[in-house]
Every structure is written in structure tokens, then in C-alpha cells.
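Let us work through a complete example step by step.
Step 1: write down the sequence.
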Amino acid sequence: MKFKQTKYHLINVADGREFEDSGWTLADPESESPSLVRAVYENKLFTPREDLDGIYRYAGWMPVKRILKNSSAPVTYKSKGLASFLGLENLYITFSGWNPKIGAKMRTCSFKETEAYSILARMEAYERRILVVQSAGNTARAFAQVCSDNRIPVVICVPQDNLHDLWFRKPLRKCVKLVAVPHGCDYYDAISLGEKLSTDPGFLLEGGAKNIARRDGMGTTILSCVEQMGRIPDAYFQAVGSGTGAIAAWENACRLADDGRFGPNKMRVYVAQNAPFTLMYDAWKAGTRELPQMTPEEGRGKSERILATVLSNRKPPYSIAGGLYDVLKESNGDFFLATNNDIFYWLLQFRNKEGYELLPAACVAVAALAQAVSDGKVKKDDYIMLNCTGGGTLGAMSKGFVHKEPDLILSPDLPAEEVIKAVKNLF
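Step 2: predict the structure and record it as C-alpha cells.
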């Protein structure tokens, strides 16, 4: 079908300057300080597209130029089991994963599919540059699957220690190339490798949190919730590695408030990390925008000690204008911690109360909600959104799976020209 793109322009969060998108703009070229840019959509009303399937139901607030196949949208429902256990009257769970019984059919079991389908659809169909994606695991799986399904060339940089996350129902097409950094390296090393590739004009860096398509794709979680809840939540809970999903939720809550039909945006954003990887938590509790120093060795060591390895980002968009620090300030939000033991406990409790299992990162969000209830930060009659960002792997893998082995293993210390030459030889 012929797709008509939603019109939008960009705004610099730091100074309010409005300007046009050149097609893959990641930052304001005239900005005097680091800042996220946001999309300002011509259509101010939240209008789901009944003529489109999957995540593109929300294409009215996504900067997409085309429709890709096999997408699914997040699913929201009002909780009974967990809500009763925690003593909450209006708990809504937004689930992005695999659980066909509730209509959730994200085959890679993670809400990273929301960003993959948005970012890849922001690309022109005739784009000849090769997309570069950096990931700690779930993002890699999502982009690999979507690019394979839609025959989009991609290079995915991922830590070798996280290759267990690269499982698929069937072998991927050859357009997907996986480049790993060696054992002992972490997500930031994968980021470094991708940045070296991006210095060559033949590659296109995905852009992370700076890409409006990533955030507006992830922001479909709250659109799903508001469709069911009928209003903007009082409180929002999510586990964070970069915090991009929470930033995205806040941005869409602001758009929903401007719509006028869903109430004012008084949503408190509550986020959580997996101890001992507590970089953003430590900064927030110290009352500072600046992140504490973390050496590569410390970061790698701490990332090895957490169950939710996808939450280990040494360079998150916390300090930048419009980043997580600003979102927590503006929303009167807060930060929580969850231990590995908390993850095990809530994995079992959630399975017992809701009937399906979550990925470790989503269990961190459940633990944060339980702490907020215990601390009195949320009231029993608050309207609460719990963003469960992944789960259902046992069901998704039950009919068999294959692992994607790396096409290359490269040290992040290699010079850029050697990295570029080695990866180009893969195509």
C-alpha cells in the first residue's frame, strides 16, 4: 500500500530552536551545547491508524517513510494478579514480548522491536549506506530480525560475552552481519567499534537516543497504555540502561497532554537500575546532572555481575539537555535499585500472578514498583503504567531456535581504517 508520511519538524530541547529534518538529523547543527532534538508533529491529536497493522498503528507520531513487514505493537491490559498482590486498584501492564494469549507477538521478545521498526522505516527505501547498530543484546536481536525480514543491510556491533542473546527461530539472511568485540569487553566497547565504522561515508550510524525514530518508536508503549487507560498515567515504571525508553514515554506524555483529551501530564517517571551497575542512580541520588567517572575496567566488571546485562551502559543520555536527568526533574520522578536476588524473586512472583515470565530487565521494573508501593510513593488508587520491556522467551523458543555466530571478532582498540576495511570485506 502507498504510505503517506506524517509531517513534522524538529525542535532543539535546550534552546527551543525549530528547524527542518534533513532526513537523518541527529542533532541541531547550530546548537551551542549538547541537546536532544524532538519531533513536532503536524497532527496534534493522538490518532491511531486503523488501516495499519502492528506498531504502525501509531505512525501518526512516528517519523517513518514506509511500512515494514512483521511488526507488532506493545500490548496493555489492566492487571489483576500483580495488582492484588501489591494492593493497587489501577495497575496497567504494558508488555512488549511474546505471549499470544494476550496478543503480544514480538518474536524477539523485547520492546527493542519498537525502535527497530521505527528507525528502519525512517530510512529511505533507496538508502545505499549500510546501517550500523551498537547493542548489548536485545537491540541486536531486534535489528537483526527486522533487517533480515525486510532485506536491509546492517552491521551490528555487540559484546562477544552477550552472544547468548543472539537467538532466532531460523537462520538470518546474509544482509545481517554481526561484529563482536572480544570476551571481557562491554557495551561501550561495542559502541566504540560502531563509531569507528561511522567515520566512513559508506556506513550510516543508527544514532542511539539522539535518533528521534528510536525514541518515538519506543514511545508507542505509552500510546498503547493510554488507549486502554483512557488517560495519562499518574506514575510510570521502567528499568533503564540508557534511559531512552523513559525519555520517550515522557515526550509522548507531553504530546498527549497537548492533545487535551487525556488530562494534564502529571506523570511521575520512576526508573531503576540493576545493582551494582548504578551509574545513573548514583548521579541522581547525589543531585547532580553529571555522571560519576567509571573506568572501562570498572564498567566491564560491574556489567559481568548483573543479571540484566542490557542495563549496563557507561555513556547513557542522562546529562544531555532533554535527557533522563531533565525528565526525572520535570516529572518529579525518582530512581530505584534492584539486586539480582530481587530479579529472581519478582521473576517468580510475576509468573505466578500474571501467568508468563519476564526478561531480567523487566523484573527490575517490577521490583521498583514494589519498592515505590512500600515507600508510599504511589497510592493504591493511582493510575500506574508498568512498562514490562520483554519476556516470553521460553514460549518463543519452544519450537526451536538457532544462534547467530559473529561474522567477525574485532578489538575496539583497532584503528578505524582497519575496522572499516575488515567490515567492508563482509559485503
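Step 3: interpret the result. Residues 75-109+214-396 form a domain with the Rossmann fold fold (CATH 3.40.50.1100).
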